[in-house]
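hi! just following up on the protien thing from before. the input was this:
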Amino acid sequence: MTYKVVTYDAGRGARAGIIVDERVFDVAEATGRQEDASVLGLLADWPSAKARLAKLAGTPSSTGMDFKTVRLFAPIPNPGAIFCAGANYADHVVEMAKAQNMAPEPDPHSLGLKSWHFIKTIGCVAGPDEVVELPRRSSKVDWEAELAAIIGRTAKDVPVERALDYVAGYTIANDLSARDFTRRAQVPDLSPFKFDWVAHKCFDKSCPLGPWMIPAEDIGDPQALAITLRVNGVVKQNSNTNVMIFSVAEQVSNLSEKLTLQPGDVILTGTPAGVGTPRGEFLKAGDDVRITIERIGELANRMA
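and the predicted 3d structure came back as:
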């Protein structure tokens, strides 16, 4: 029996739950294990926890709540770290180079390069259907639909061929970006201090996540998923994860060479072509943004 892992509002705080047949079940209440009360707790013991969840999902029960009546938070409201891949879809690299009147860079594999990432903070996390207040200092907030991989085992120096074994599951992310704060004004273009990644990427609620985590086993190949973003019903991004430059496995492996990945860390794996910057289109108050990824579902947020 398949299931979705969620963090939901239980009326007494956020709790870990699973959705089976469109009903939400409280995991800790069902297993009798207090450590199962949060998704981070489940991920800390993921190899064993997923067996408990599979057993729970396969046990018929008339209890639980209609998930449509339950408020969902981000599946991991407080991830240990959020790593975000930069320039990782070939179609996106081409469109951004064109927007800047530059020649597209060669495939980084041909230069012996590995994937590179920046970091978002925990304060960036927003949940499904949550209203995101656009930062008043920015007039150029852009959208970026992304597949997010959630780490379920401590990973250090992991080879590419085993890297996906360390992924517990996948969710949807929107890497909102304040494009007018990418570069620091009055700092020379060639200065190593020109770029301001905090102002660009880390404003409050700039990383909507959700609506749930789908176990990795139910996704199968993460490099074969359709990904689409709509703003007010109009398709802006429409691509496939097979256009990634560095695969999910390569990203997990490359990151694990630099640092130790921990259960509950989240990796945003890059965005495809169709962002607003090349067309001069940016988000405004009232906009409805919806991202769908094949086999996962839909993440919706309204801008304010």
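The mean pLDDT is 95.
Residues 150 and 266 are 5 Å apart (CA to CA).
cheers
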